[in-house]
From TrEMBL:
Keyword Plastid: no
InterPro entries registered for this protein in UniProt: YicC-like_C, YicC-like_N, YicC/YloC-like
Protein name: YicC family protein
Cofactor: a divalent metal cation
Lineage: Bacteria, Bacillati, Bacillota, Clostridia, Eubacteriales
Family to which this protein belongs: Belongs to the YicC/YloC family.
Length: 293
């Protein structure tokens, strides 16, 4: 089953201390480009996140938005630097005794001295953080992949229908091709009759040689065979389960090359119109393929 590169998913997860909300969107891109926006305190998890996403997504630009809310204890810890506070108090006592200062030493006074009260981030259980975040990301990825798969089904159906239409036109070109040579022979014969007197005998061998040269010059048998082969390969590729975007792009390029050759070899108006129809369909398929993983 093919997958589109366009999708969106949202996932949530929480434990006793934190809650994660993750939103992931993906769009078409030539390579696998992952951009993650999350709180700075989670930067150490970036590589793990990218590896997780790559398990689901092989191609496309992926943008991940992560928000974190603390629902347990505060994420900071306040502590007292007791040795330092003791030194401040001892200094204040010496000043009081030495200079007979009457003012009392208060807690509010000591707490204002630098580094007596220290505010530091709470140490987190990294495994717990990762497990909670992984759950939220996995939920978002599953929803995103479901959306990508759903759109992929529609893309495959559209491309398959266009391939069937192209195959029908190729058959019409193949059926028309022999008539082009016969019509050329008849036109050549009639033209010679117009230019020569009726009593002049036409050299049939010479006429046959000219027709043979024309037939060889405008032969599109090889191109028709390759076009049919490419159409079959394209249809089979649509049923493959692994990423097929690059392969489809290559097949479309080859089909374009073959049909261009057919157009350059043929001087028949009907075949030329068929060529235009196929090129139009190939362009529509190419646009669809740009969004397939």
């Amino acid at each position: 089953m093919i997958k589109s590169m366009t999708g969106f998913g949202r996932g949530e997860a929480k434990d006793i201390e934190r809650q994660f909300v993750v939103e992931i969107k993906s769009v078409n891109h030539r390579y696998n480009d992952i951009v993650i926006r999350m709180p700075k305190r989670l930067i150490y998890l970036e590589d793990q996140l990218k590896n997780l996403i790559k398990e689901y997504i092989k191609r496309g630009r992926v943008e991940v938005y992560i928000t974190l809310e603390n629902i347990g204890d505060t994420d900071t810890r306040i502590s007292v630097n007791e040795p330092l506070a003791k030194q401040y108090i001892d200094c204040l006592k010496r000043i009081k005794d030495e200079f007979s200062v009457l003012d009392d030493i208060s807690v509010s006074l000591v707490s204002k001295f630098p580094d007596v009260i220290k505010v530091s981030p709470k140490e987190e259980d990294e495994d717990a953080v990762w497990n909670c975040l992984k759950e939220a990301v996995s939920n978002a990825l599953q929803k995103l992949m479901k959306m990508r798969a759903s759109e992929g089904v529609k893309l495959a159906e559209d491309i398959n229908n266009r391939c069937t239409y192209i195959a029908d036109i190729v058959n019409k070109i193949e059926n028309r091709s022999p008539s082009v040579v016969l019509e050329y022979k008849q036109r050549l014969y009639d033209r010679i009759r117009e230019l020569l007197d009726d009593d002049v005998e036409i050299d049939e061998n010479r006429l046959s040689m000219e027709v043979a040269l024309f037939a060889d010059k405008c032969s599109i048998t090889e191109e028709i065979v390759r076009l049919k082969s490419h159409v079959d390969q394209l249809k089979k590729t649509l049923k493959e389960s692994h990423p097929i975007g690059r392969k489809l792009d290559f097949l479309i390029q080859e089909m374009n090359r073959e049909i261009n050759t057919v157009g350059s070899k043929s001087s028949d108006l009907e075949i030329t119109n068929y060529v235009v129809d196929i090129k139009s369909e190939l362009e529509k398929i190419r646009e669809q393929v740009q969004n397939i993983e």
